[in-house]
Amino acid sequence: MNPRDELRRLGIPADMIDTATVNGQPIGQPQYGRVCVDVCEHGVVRIVIPGPAIGKPRMTQRDKWKKRPCVMRYRDWCDRVRAGVGNALPAAEDVAELNWTAYFEPPKSWPKTRRLAAIGKRHRSKPDIDNVAKGILDCLFTNDQGIAEMRCWKQWDWRARLEVEIVSE
């Protein structure tokens, strides 16, 4: 019996099953829009954000009243992540290191052979890695100047998601 069926048999509500983890790994595929948070021992927090990572767009004062689509998409993404994470994160000053990997799906317009060849390889197109990093830091921490060490990757995978690991001191 798979872990999802076991949790259903025990009477766990469906919304809790979608965010459940077994041995620190999310079970099954999280629903689009649902953020999975796993607080492990030794001060490690793992977050899985389904869907493609969004880089932080350049914003100006004008974006307060002129609702550009790229800015609105970014703000919606940040709100969804903040709501899913809640207050499970340590303060930025207590973070020893922050590691994240952004997985992107190959475009459907690519031929099947090119899509298959891309899986597991580095993602070298937009969004830029620095914009994704700025988006993650601004989204997760109100004051991110305390973050001193960060490792980041972008790669192709069949399921678009962002996996963040935060190690506390």
Description:
With 169 residues, this protein is an alpha+beta fold. The chain has 2 domains: 1-28, no CATH class; 32-168, 60s Ribosomal Protein L30, Chain: A (2-Layer Sandwich). Helices cover 28% and strands 24% of the residues. It has 5 helices and 7 strands, in the order ααββββαβααββ. It has helices at residues 3-9, 14-18, 69-85, 112-118, 129-140, and strands at 21-22, 25-26, 36-39, 44-50, 95-104, 150-156, 161-168. A hairpin with a 4-residue loop joins strand 3 (36-39) and strand 4. Helix 3 (69-85) packs across helix 5 (129-140). The chain is globular.
State the end-to-end distance.
Answer: 38 Å
The count of domains is 2
Ranges with pLDDT <50 over ≥5 residues? 28-32
User: What sort of overall outline do the alpha carbons produce when their principal axes are compared?
Assistant: globular
SS-based class: alpha+beta
Tally of separate helices: 5
Assigned CATH class of the largest domain: Alpha Beta
Number of beta-strand segments? 7
The radius of gyration computed from the alpha-carbon positions, rounded to a whole number of angstroms, is 17 Å
Physical arrangement of strands within the biggest beta sheet: 3-4-7-5-6
Element string (H = helix, E = strand): HHEEEEHEHHEE
Q: What is the correct CATH architecture of the largest domain?
A: 2-Layer Sandwich
- Any idea of the CATH topology of the largest domain? 60s Ribosomal Protein L30, Chain: A
| Residues in helix, % | 25-40%
Average pLDDT for all residues: 82
Strand content: 15-25%
Largest sheet: 5 strands, mixed
Using brief descriptors, characterize the structure shown.
169 residues; alpha+beta; 60s Ribosomal Protein L30, Chain: A; 2 domains; 24% strand; globular
